[in-house]
Every structure is written in C-alpha cells, then in structure tokens.
Amino acid sequence: MEKKPQFSGPRRPMGGGGSRPGARGRKGNFQRDNRDPYVINEHIRAREVRLVGDNVEQGIYPISQALKIAEQQELDLIEISPNAEPPVCRILDYQKFLYQQKKRQKEQKAKAAKVVVKEIRFGPQTDDHDYNFKLKHAIGFLKEGSKVKAYVFFRGRSILFKEQGEVLLLRFANDLEEYGKVEMMPVLEGKRMTIMLTPLKAPAKKEAPAKEKAPKQEKRAGNEEDSKEK
User: At 125, is the secondary structure helix, strand, or coil?
Assistant: First the structure.
C-alpha cells in the first residue's frame, strides 16, 4: 500500500521576515540584509518614532501607526537617526533613498580636492647651484597646485648647523612668495627641519584690452588720409 504524505497544517513561508509596507502587492516579501546601513519597516524596534519629511504631518507616533502611514503611501519607514529619543524616521522609497545617498557621497568625493604633497630635500650646506635647481622644481609644483614640503636633513654632527638650515628654509619660502604661502614655519622633528608651502590661487586670465588694437586702426586711418591727400 502506498503511504499518504502526512500533512500537519498550513505551511509558513520560508524566511520568517515581515512584509515590506511599500512592497505589499508589488514586490512581495522583503528580507533585510545585515549590511543595510538603515533599519526599516518592521525591523525598527522602537515603540514610538518621530516622523519628519514633507509627505507626513511631523510628530511622534506609535510604531504601529507610523508603519500604517507608510503602508498607505506604499513607501518604506526608514530609521535615519536611531540614537535620537525617540528615533527619527522618514517615509520614502528605500531603494530610491539609498540611490540618492550614494549619489550624494560620490558628488562630495568628486568635489573634495585631492591634495598632493611634493617633498624637496636639502642638506644644511646646500650650494647655490643645487638650491636654484630645487627652487625651480618647487615653482613648478606650486604652479600645478601641489603643496611643497621642504626639509633639511641633518646627518650626524651636522645637527650643529640647525640654525643654518632654518635660514635656508626661510630663504626658500621668501623666494617662493609669488607662488605659495607658508602654511607651517620651520619645525625641527628628529633629524629633519621642515617647512610647508601651499600654492596661491592661480590668477584669473585677463582678456587683452581693446586699446591695444586701437593704434593699428589709427595707423590704418592715417594711411587712408595720406592716400587721399596724395
């Protein structure tokens, strides 16, 4: 005889998570990923929350009522400030909210200027030829928008010439005053005395004044008058 399969009652759906208010009737059950940066919907544990945003009447609501409002709008209840008392929530589409957050972060990173620091090393008794060579490089670095970190390295007993190294760095900063300003005065750290220069803002390119073209026109007018007199 064939064995009949045993049936002990209605089966529960796998996964155990609650359904998503904004997805009911649209996307089915919603499972929260532990890597999600925000807690949403039924995963919010607070008994009451503060609702903010343009699409709700702002105030403090029991969590059940806040979830009901989100469900009515077919959106998600997102806990944006969990450490507040009570936690602050917004009612938005969660996927769109995450997309906007990532987009905003990318824009902020793009706007943030990447600071490049170029190092130039001197000895306490650098000769003029070597000094001018490194000065030329520093001018190029500052023009391209990089910071310049110049330092004098004292080897062995040359630390006795630290005052000479400070004079060298101050001279270096003075020779670069048209291209950069001193961000940090000479500081002795171990065997190094360092100075930091930051580039000046590049001056805006000025258009050639119209007066420069005027003399040529006057000359032409003068030539025409001469030809008429002849």
Answer: coil
21-107: what CATH class? Answer: alpha beta
40's enclosing H/E stretch is strand 39-40
CA distance 178 to 142: 10
Q: Where in the chain are the domains?
A: 21-107, 117-199
Going from the C-alpha of 109 to that of each of 38, 89, 113, 199, 225, the distances in angstroms are 21, 26, 8, 21, 64
Portion of the chain with pLDDT greater than 70, in percent: 70
For 21-59, what is each residue's pLDDT tens digit?
Answer: 444 433 334 555 566 789 999 999 999 999 998 889 999
* Residue with the two structure tokens 């062995």: 156
Question: Which strands sit side by side in the sheet containing 117-122, from one edge to the other?
Answer: 117-122, 147-153, 192-199, 180-189
pLDDT confidence bin for 162, thresholds 50/70/90: confident
Domain range 117-199, CATH class: alpha beta
Cross-strand bridge partners of residue 90: 52, 78
